[in-house]
Design goal:
The protein is an all-beta fold and about 80 residues long. The chain has one domain: ATP Synthase, domain 1 (Sandwich). It has no helices and seven strands. The radius of gyration is 11 Å and the shape is globular.
């Protein structure tokens, strides 16, 4: 899967990922390869990105995520 994590100021992460854990407004959730299409709002919390190099955490203040065709776009 490919992830773009974008803020108004910069791109925090861009690249291939194994999974991503999100702080959704309805509760935490995770996306894996071939995840069903989804658009969700995010609340303040930790967005956890798992890559082949390990796990990287990002603190976000909320936002929106779109998952479509193994591409994840996060506007935080």
């Amino acid at each position: 899967m490919y992830l773009e994590l974008i803020t108004p100021d910069t791109t925090l992460f861009e690249g291939e990922v194994i999974s991503v854990k999100f702080p959704g407004t309805g509760g935490k959730f995770e996306t894996l390869n071939n995840h069903a299409p989804i658009i969700s709002s995010l609340e303040e919390g930790v967005l956890s990105v798992k890559t082949e190099r390990g796990v990287e955490d990002f603190n976000i203040n909320g936002g929106i995520v779109e998952v479509l065709n193994n591409k994840i776009i996060v506007l935080a």
